[in-house]
Amino acid sequence: QQSLVKFARWATANNMSLHQDKFEVVNYTLRSTQLLRQLPFSAENYLYSGPSGKDITPTDTVRDLGVLLSANCTWSEHLGVISRKARRMSGWALSVFSDRSDETMLTLLKSIIRPQVEYCCPLWSPVKKSEIALVEEAQRHFTRRIASCAGLTYWERLEHLKILSLQRRRERYTIIHTWKVLHGWVPNSTGMQFTRNPRLGVKMIVPSFNYRAQRSISGPYDSSFGVRGARLWNSLPRSVTESVTLIGLKQSLGSFLSTIPDHPPVRGYSVQHTNSLIDWRNVPSVFNTQNR
Coil, strand or helix: which one is 58? Predict the structure, then answer.
């Protein structure tokens, strides 16, 4: 509430008019039981007043810079929205363009389909198989219509078209952003900590987790950028983490990713894990001593 008061004073000092009806608030709670909400002081933790003194109505979901934030600390609603947008865009493209050649279809995929499901993806990148499959469906559905891919499975289409799955692309973005944090290109807003090992090179410290805490917060912990970025970075070989230029990083990272199978979870396919680099690291036949 004090922050809202300060913001209102700043707006007044700068001759800005705030629209009270557009104020929204999302309450993040670990235990949202009905009993706790009935306590006398509970309302003070959930109600806030706007500049005019009117109470701000709490909401379960709010949009912030194009990303949907939910009160249950999950990205399920955001993933559903972007997946539907990608499917609608895919349907429009297939109805307008009759050419099904590789060049035309890949151009459409890269220019109007992928942007729908990749905006700000290091923030909301899913870790559950069902959610990974939900987002992956956009690219799977579109590549199925490419003429040269008739009769191929989705994993085979990825290899035939020489493209990455959406999941693998999200991890690539996360790694690139982590590199930018390391070299001071972007602010270290999550407090990432790096260490240098004489044998392994630059590694990251994974934020600690209190395993005596509620199980409900383990999911947001595992999917958070600070934890996910650290685990992905630590799974990379030294030849990638010690890149000194962005171009060099992309080249070495691309070469490394080409050696790792790309089999994302999708409906109708049986998979042993989520296809993450973190999971492939535990497969000795794939992540050999040289990659480590």
Answer: strand
In 3D space, the residue among 75, 82, 165, 85 whose CA is nearest the CA of residue 125 turns out to be 75
Residue pointed to by tokens 């995929």: 109
Choose among 55, 56, 59, 57: nearest CA to 71. 59
Inter-residue contact 235 to 278 (CB < 8 Å):
yes
Query: What is the DSSP secondary-structure string of 275-291?
Result: --HHHHTT-TTTS-TTT
What's this model's pTM, rounded to 2 decimal places? 0.83
Give 214-262 pLDDT, tens digit per residue. 666 666 777 888 889 999 999 999 999 999 999 999 999 999 999 999 9
Residue 44's contacts (CB-CB under 8 Å, 6 or more residues apart) are none
Is 248 in a helix, a strand, or coil? helix
- Residue 274 token pair: 């989520």
- State how far the alpha carbon of 240 is from the alpha carbons of 18, 77, 117, 140, 169, in Å: 48, 35, 26, 29, 16
As a whole number of angstroms, the distance between CA 90 and CA 87 comes to 5
Alpha helices in the chain (DSSP H): 2-13, 34-37, 76-96, 102-108, 114-118, 121-124, 129-143, 154-161, 166-182, 218-223, 225-234, 238-241, 246-257, 277-280
State whether residue 32 is helix, strand or coil: coil
**pLDDT tens for residues 116-175?**
999 999 999 998 999 999 999 999 999 999 999 999 999 999 999 999 999 999 999 999
The Cα–Cα gap between 78 and 76 comes to 6
Q: Give the Å distances, CA to CA, from 13 to 8, 9, 49, 208, 287.
A: 9, 6, 19, 42, 59
- Return d(Cα 161, Cα 143) in angstroms, integer: 9
The tokens for 164 are 């990455």
Phi, psi of 67 (to 5 degrees): -115, 135
Separation between Cα atoms, residue 58 and residue 46, nearest integer Å: 7
